[in-house]
Design brief:
Shape: globular
Number of helices: 5
Distance between the termini: 26 Å
Strand content: 35-45%
Radius of gyration: 15 Å
Strand order of the largest sheet: 1-2-3-4-5-7-6
Length: about 170
Amino acid sequence: MIIRKLEPQDVEVFWSLRLKSLKEHPESFGSNYEEASLTAMDEVRRRFPNSADQFLLGAFGENNELTGMIGFRRESSRNLAHKGMLWGVYVDSAHQGKGIATALLRHVLEEVRSLDGLEQVYLAVVTVNEPAVRLYRSAGFEIFGTEPNALKIGSESYDEYWMVCKL
């Protein structure tokens, strides 16, 4: 497995995996498949995060296949720039259980620790995703709040834990 920052030339494989994540696990993301699938590739390319303060890491397996990803976005306001957010964490179902999410999380935390002035990283995770909650706790994240009904998919609501890792 190779973990590296995704580059603009990776946008198509990223978007394919992103859409798959939204379709297979709608309860885990604020974005939804129906809306995202209508987004033109030019718009995806324009919004693709590719800087020190906004990036995606990808895990590549055999045949250079993107098997997992994790996004990072640092807050841009001077008063908030001491913190950043993890987003879009996903490992393809065919590759789960192989330590890919653990490796991605470890790599992203190593990467962001080098950012000057960054003090903490936060994320939101649905409370019913117990494996993800355990993973984040094992990496040093702590729950600091619960947002009731954070996501609503059809008639079903999902609470989210807000978690933080002090760097």
